[in-house]
Design goal:
212 residues; alpha/beta; Methyltransferase, Methionine Synthase (B12-binding Domains), Chain A, domain 1; Rossmann fold; five-stranded parallel sheet; binds CO-5-methoxybenzimidazolylcobamide
């Protein structure tokens, strides 16, 4: 039987097969998918982040860790998305222009799905015009913007400005998040809210759409 600590360690060392088998073992053992994510996968990725910052890990290793985490998420995701709940609202989510980080954004999307929202996940490197086209196509209640780089934060403002220019601002709520984002920044660029993590993002979307 695998433990959360072992799972975290497999994420840190980027051991693809071991991450998948440990995830399956924890599921078979009856562990909650949310605990597997928080106590195993995110715990491991947090260590990766700290080591990357301290230059104890480098981009290829971080990428391996990110891939192992995504592989485990693919296993866990159907278990928490299959709640068979009526949709609480539609949320369009994407990582802004120039930004390729998607682990956190996908986690937010997954948590929102598990909370009963319909989620349209646009992916990474989404420019303001693509967000606009997707709003036209999907008519979401909320648009979620994710950015992990200080250099891509300005594209959140550009996206919001374009939504305002095109007269769509009163049709959607806008939520922003990602490691460098703060409530102050969200206020500055005219977002409706900021969430520091996936659980808070779910609460915020519930609050914005008055979902109990
Ligand atoms: Co990048 N990277 N990276 N990276 N990377 C960071 C972000 C960095 C902080 C690392 C560091 O230097 N300490 C740094 C940014 C510095 C800065 O801007 N101030 C950085 C850098 C510099 C870079 C490159 C420029 C490196 C290079 O090439 N020299 C490059 C940029 C590429 C690009 O985007 N154009 C780059 C590349 C990469 C990889 C490709 C190797 C990989 C990404 C793989 C992928 O995502 N598929 C990667 C990774 C993995 C990281 C770190 C280590 C981990 C990010 C992560 O996945 N965290 C990261 C360091 C760190 O954050 N500690 C780092 C786990 C994830 C669960 O957390 O994404 O924060 P997070 O998401 C959270 C919350 O932020 C929030 O909820 C999530 C879940 O709780 N949240 C939202 C996120 N989006 C939200 C949206 C919401 C609400 C909440 O509403 C819509």
């Amino acid at each position: 039987m695998a433990s959360f600590q072992e799972l975290a360690q497999y994420v840190i060392t980027g051991q693809f097969d071991q991450v998948k088998s440990a995830t399956k073992s924890l599921i078979e053992d009856g562990k909650s998918p949310v605990d597997i994510i928080n106590q195993g996968l995110i715990a491991g990725m947090n260590v990766v982040g700290a080591r990357f910052k301290a230059c104890d890990m480098f981009v290829p290793e971080v990428l391996m860790s990110a891939k192992t985490m995504s592989a485990a998420m693919e296993i866990v995701k159907p278990l928490i998305a299959d709640a068979d709940m009526p949709s609480s609202g539609k949320i369009l989510i994407g990582t802004v222009k120039g930004d390729l980080h998607d682990i956190g954004k996908n986690l937010v999307a997954m948590m929102l799905e598990s909370a009963g929202f319909t989620v349209v996940n646009l992916g990474i490197d989404i420019d303001p015009e693509q967000f606009l086209d997707a709003i036209d196509e999907h008519e979401p209640d909320i648009v979620g913007l994710s950015a992990l780089l200080t250099t891509t934060m300005p594209f959140m403002k550009e996206t919001i400005d374009l939504i305002v220019e095109e007269g769509l601002r009163d049709k959607v709520k806008i939520v922003v998040g990602g490691a460098p984002i703060s409530q102050e920044f969200a206020d500055l660029i005219g977002a409706d809210g900021f969430a520091p993590d996936a659980a808070a993002a779910t609460d915020l979307c519930r609050e914005l759409l008055s979902v109990k």
